[in-house]
Amino acid sequence: MKAGIGAILTIIATLAAQAQIQVGPAPFRGLPPGQPAATGTSSIEGAVTDSLTHNPIRKAMVNLNGRTSLVAATDADGHFAFRQLPAGQYSLQAQSDKYPAAPFSVDVGRQATVSVAADEHKTGVGLSLVPGASLRGRVVDEEGNPMPQCTVSPMRYRAGDPNPAMVGGVSSPTNDKGEYQIENVPAGKYYLMARCFQSIPMPHAFVRRDALADVPRLTYPPLFYPASADLSGGTRVSLPAGTELTGIDFQMVAATGITVRGRVRPVLTGLTQITLAPKEKLLRPFQQQGARANQTTGEFQIQSVRPGSYEIQATAQAEGRSYSARVPIEVGANAPDSIDVPLQPAPQISGSVEIEGDQKPPLKNLHVALFPLDAQPFGPPPQVEVQSDGSFVTSASPGRWRLQVNGAPGYVKSVTLGDQEVSAPSLEIGTTPGTLKIILSTKYSQVDATVAASPADAQQVYGMLWSPTNGDLQQSMPANPQGSMTFSVPPGRYIACATAVQPFSWLQNRDFKKALEGQCQSVEVPGEGRARVQMPFVPADEIKRLADKLETDDTPVN
Questions:
Q1: Helix or strand or coil: residue 511?
Q2: What is the mean pLDDT of residues 536-541?
Q3: CB neighbours of residue 527 within 10 Å
Q4: Distance from C-alpha of 28 to C-alpha of 9, rounded to nearest angstrom
Q5: Measured distance CA(257)–CA(201) in Å, rounded
Q6: C-alpha–C-alpha distance, residues 190 and 157, integer Å
Q7: At 469, phi and psi to the nearest 5?
Q8: Domain boundary among 237, 253, 269
Q9: Which candidate, 80, 170, 171, places its Cα nearest to that of 125?
Q10: What's the pTM?
Q11: Taking CA atoms, which of 195, 201, 208, 437 is between 20 and 30 Å from 244?
Q12: Domain end residue (candidates: 211, 238, 253)
């Protein structure tokens, strides 16, 4: 994304000094390749400012979407302009590297909706961006000596379905003085984690020469601010917009590190990837360690492992087939015995795809894909082409997967594994071969939605419809001038409401949708039928309040 923005800035650099920047029609977004943008006689002009200082922001990018899609950059006065526009309704959104937006954030100021008639020239459109924060400090060892080449990461908790996780932000390495500085962090509350990868052998009275590699080592476990080796003991740090927080220091504490050894069997011709993952799933992306098995002997070793509960995950691919293994281990004060890791071939799954209805499109262009919900497999996730008769054969390691049919003309109506109906968003695959039957349907139901009591001054109102049980089923669209819209969705239960805030980002946040449910309307959508719903209007300040409360109440649950 940054590379793309840099390219656009280069193109328009010669225009940036003008009082008004004109970006002519160009197919930056939303247009088929080679198709010229629609033109007209209308225009939209405005300015982008800092939400705290109200100063203009130079070189901010403004995206315009509607009858045509364009990108403009602001000049020294924060001014932007789009000219030669056809009449219609447009959405505008501003962005800048120095004004980062947090994932799933509700940032009302950076977006706007504007309607223009033929020959109309709309001016004074205001967009504002919230400045990021910065923090700096030092990382030292137990004696107060600086520790270079450590990293400090701001992290947020996200209780998403199916798995909760800690989401990392921009990390910063420490210099020779142990100092770090992180800039342009989206405002909010964060857990701060310091990691140092140095280790030294522990003093030992007598060691056999052939056992030297098993000598315990001193290592530095990750530390959560202010001084906890566990996430539960960490304290969230508030980073207000536009501020610099200093003195966020870490004093690392050395702990015993153990060498874990093992052997995978059988020894395969391809690479075998070993991962030592902590039992605490929240931190697996940050604290897991990896190794590769010797391609001749199958042996592996992982050094500097601190005592705790772990799982060894082994994955391999050989001769077009996947293999995997999972072995729980406990690491104490001494090195455990060599771990035996028996690889098992991924069970073969024979499947079929059927499409309901009288009109049945060809099946050959469909692909059945599986995406892991637990451990990440070695290599790309399984994806196979469906044959013209609807059959396919795939394999996947035991565990939970999300099933998706790419190129499907409709939606996945049902999935049957063996003789059990299962869920496509969370499919449990066992250790034995099985049969998978997928039924697609092209028969959507209709939801006629009307916005209830929307404010007269709202430039644009958006309707939202989502499934409370399936995060893949969600839609949003602008209401027409009469405050109504029609959704085409699979049958099922949905939550519906409306707002003047563009929902395209935070509609992806399952936590936020759950918090919003109490102010929305539930609707049951019958199969191949129609349903009607009055969509309650949720004001922008209430959307912001819910988002802020969610940020305050965010508590990790493993």
A1: helix
A2: 88
A3: 12
A4: 13
A5: 9
A6: 8
A7: -115, -20
A8: 253
A9: 80
A10: 0.74
A11: 195
A12: 253
> Looking at the structure, do residues 490 and 548 belong to the same domain, yes or no?
yes
Please say whether the beta carbons of 70 and 82 come within 8 A.
Answer: yes
Distance CA 83, CA 503 (A): 27
Buried b (16+ CB within 10 A) or exposed e, 219-241: bbbbbbbeeebebeebebbebeb
Through-space distance between the first and last CA atoms of the chain, rounded to whole angstroms: 32
Tens of pLDDT, residues 420-456: 999 888 889 888 888 999 999 988 999 999 998 777 6
Phi, psi of 109 (to 5 degrees): -70, -25
User: Within this chain, do residues 233 and 279 fall inside the same structural domain, yes or no?
Assistant: no
| pLDDT for the residue 28 | 31
Give residue-wise pLDDT tens across range 344-387: 988 899 999 999 876 677 787 899 999 888 766 556 778 899 99
Q: Give the H/E segment covering residue 427.
A: strand 427-429
Q: CA–CA distance from 484 to each of 166, 306, 518, 533 (Å)? A: 39, 59, 21, 10
- Given CA atoms 74, 80, 83, 88 in this order, what sign does their dihedral have? positive
Q: In terms of domains, do 227 and 304 share one? A: no
The two tokens of residue 243 are 């501020």
Cα–chain-centroid distance for residue 343? Answer: 31
Domain count of the fold of the chain: 5
DSSP string for residues in 32-68: -TTPPPP--SEEEEEEEEETTT--B-TT-EEEEESSS
Whether residue 166 is found in the same domain as residue 100: no
Report angle CA 19, 25, 30 to the nearest 5 degrees. Answer: 125
Collect all residues with Cβ–Cβ distance below 8 Å to 102 and sequence separation of at least 6: 156, 186, 187, 188
- Average pLDDT of span 61-79: 93
- What does the pLDDT read at residue 231? 84
Burial 295-330 (b: 16+ CB within 10 A, else e): eeebebbbbbbbebebbbbbbbbbeeebbbbbeebe
Task: Tokens for 543, please give them.
Answer: 């959307």
Within this chain, do residues 123 and 138 fall inside the same structural domain, yes or no?
A: no
Q: What are phi and psi of 213, to 5 degrees?
A: -70, -15
Find residue 371's DSSP bridge partners.
Answer: 402
pLDDT digits (tens, 9 = 90+) for 156-201: 876 555 556 666 677 899 999 999 999 999 888 899 999 998 877 6
Q: Which domain holds residue 158?
A: 133-253
